[in-house]
Structure formats: structure tokens, C-alpha cells
Automatic annotation (TrEMBL):
Residues 242-311 form the Tip attachment protein J Fn3-1 domain. This is Host specificity protein J. It comes from the Bacteria. Residues 3-128 form the Tip attachment protein J domain. It comes from Escherichia coli O157.
Length: 311
């Protein structure tokens, strides 16, 4: 499972390396009618209805009609319909990116891992700057933040050119990590990718590798959910973990401070605050009032994307 990081991809004119797209809502079916050859019906065509009640409540009933070619079992027809539903509901993301010669590290059908710092909202991949074999310590090309609880791992490339996952045992400095074992053949400037307990590994299945005229390779891959087979065959419950620390939920404001000062007979109020997590595109609405309770009155308002403002 080869990891690709921001250090591997060729950025476009807009400074974007990984480009994402999502399936349309109309393409996410919540019910399927599967036609199959039924031996219990004189080898005539029967129809098996497969539905996802939870998805219907969320998205509405979106019906797909399909033929299961060569299917002579009702159970097999049910599985085919359920597989389509779970595929369309769980694997909704597509990624496109461009690589140098590393585009030949995988072929269509292979599972790859995307370690995109921008999408994750934290640093999850880069290059190894130096290796201390005696202490099994790696110096990375950037500072990383590891959670205080849970087990973190790092994916490295061994001497055979294969990715190997090893546990992180210590974090002696912001840009250094100590691993449980050092894979044979790990070299400086090799790729590393973090696996954090707070983030889901972002796996994709490569569908195409196209060579460009400038010697680069254009990659297209679709989201891969390895739990899908257990969901379809065994009825496993699956609550997908987020692959990013960024959130669409507005963050709570914390550490709010107000400093009031007088200048030229007027009062100035400097307001500062922060948030526990980053949400792109969020803006804060501020209201300055005087007095308290029923005697309070609105003085002015402001909207800002910064975490400080002066009234």
C-alpha cells in the first residue's frame, strides 16, 4: 500500500496538488431491484428488492433497477444489490493528482494511501531528512503533532521499495520520532506517512495511470473502504472515522480576553480569542454592548475571519 504525500505530487498553477471530487446525490441509490434467474420460479426472472432504511431516511428513496447476469440464487441477488448500495454510500470520493517517476510504483487496481496535509488539517506526510540507526530515531522534514493517547505509526519505504508500517515509541522533538523497529534499507529523503488514532487512513483504489507528454503521470483513484465486505457479508456495523481534523461544525470560542484602554478621551477595546480546531472559511460575529441586563444597549457589531478585533 504505497503512500503519497504532498512532497510527491506536482502542484498546478493554483498551488493545488490533490484534487478531490464527490459523487452526486442522485448517484447514491438507497434501494435496488435486482432481476435474477430464479430456479424456484421455473427458471423465470424474479426480482429481489434490497433497501437501506437508514439511508432512505437521510437521502430519500432513490431506486436503481439492475440485472444480475448469471445469478440463480436469491441470496446472491440480495448481496449484489446490497454491494451496490454500500459502494455508492461509502465510497463517494475521487482524487486526481500528478506524479513524477513514482507514478510507476502502482498499477490500476492497487490500493494506495493519500497523506494530504491540507485535507487532514495536520501534518501527516513528508520526507525523512536523517536517520539515527543506533537510537532508531528519524528526523523529519517538518514538525508533527502526536496525540497523547492511542498508538501512532509511521509508514516508511524499505530497501525493497515496499511500504512498511512501524509503531512510534517516542517523540523526543517536534521534528523527530523514535520507532519500535527500523526497516531494512530505509534511506534519507524517503517518504514517510503518519497513521494517527484520531484520523482514519485515507485509502483509494487506483483506476487509471496516464503518462503525460512532460514525463509525469496523472493518477485517478476512487475511495476504498476495506470494511465494506464485512458489512455486506456479515452485517457488520460501521461508523466511518473522519479523515480530517477540519470540521464543518463551527468551533467553540475559548480563551476570550478583552483589554480596554483610553486614548484621546475615547475608549478602545482589544478583543482576542482562539478555537480548539481549525475550520476553513469560518467568520466570527462580534457585538459590543454597554451596560448589563435590561439596561444594556448595542454599541456596534463586526464580522471578521481573524481571532482578534479592535473596537
Amino acid at each position: 500500500m504505497w503512500p503519497y504525500t504532498n512532497c510527491d505530487v506536482v502542484v498546478d498553477d493554483n498551488g493545488v496538488g490533490f484534487r478531490y471530487s464527490f459523487s452526486a446525490l442522485k448517484d447514491r441509490h438507497t434501494a435496488v431491484e435486482v432481476n435474477y434467474t430464479d430456479p424456484q420460479n421455473g427458471w423465470q426472472t424474479s426480482t429481489e428488492l434490497v433497501e437501506d432504511p437508514e439511508a432512505i431516511l437521510r437521502y430519500g428513496r432513490n431506486l436503481l433497477k439492475m440485472d444480475a447476469f448469471g445469478c440463480t440464487s436469491r441470496g446472491q441477488a440480495h448481496r449484489a444489490g446490497l454491494w451496490v448500495i454500500k459502494t455508492e454510500l461509502l465510497e463517494t470520493q475521487t482524487v486526481d493528482f500528478t506524479l513524477g517517476s513514482q507514478g510507476l510504483r502502482h498499477t490500476p487496481g492497487d490500493i494506495i494511501e493519500i497523506c494530504d496535509n491540507d485535507y487532514a488539517g495536520t501534518l501527516t506526510g513528508g520526507r525523512v531528512l536523517s536517520i539515527d540507526a543506533a537510537t532508531r530515531t528519524l528526523t523529519l522534514d517538518r514538525e508533527v503533532t502526536l496525540p497523547e493517547t492511542g498508538t501512532s505509526a509511521v509508514n516508511l519505504i524499505n530497501g525493497s521499495g515496499k511500504p512498511v508500517s512501524v509503531a512510534i515509541t517516542a517523540h523526543p522533538a517536534p521534528d523527530r520520532i523514535q520507532v519500535s523497529t527500523l526497516p531494512d534499507g530505509v534511506e534519507t529523503y524517503g517518504v514517510w506517512g503518519l497513521s494517527l488514532p484520531s484520523l482514519r487512513r485515507r485509502l483509494f483504489r487506483c483506476v487509471s495511470v496516464r503518462e503525460n507528454t512532460d514525463g509525469t503521470f496523472a493518477i485517478t483513484a476512487v475511495q476504498h473502504v476495506p470494511e465494506k465486505e464485512a458489512i455486506v457479508d456479515n452485517g457488520a456495523r460501521f461508523e466511518p472515522q473522519s479523515g480530517t481534523l477540519n470540521s464543518v461544525i463551527p468551533p467553540a470560542v475559548q480563551h476570550l480576553t478583552v483589554e480596554v484602554s483610553a486614548a484621546d478621551g475615547q475608549y478602545l477595546a482589544q478583543v482576542k480569542w482562539d478555537t480548539p480546531r481549525v475550520v476553513k472559511g469560518v467568520r466570527f460575529s462580534l457585538r459590543l454592548t454597554s451596560g448589563s441586563g435590561q439596561d444594556s444597549r448595542l454599541v456596534t457589531t463586526a464580522i471578521t475571519a481573524d481571532t482578534e478585533h479592535r473596537f
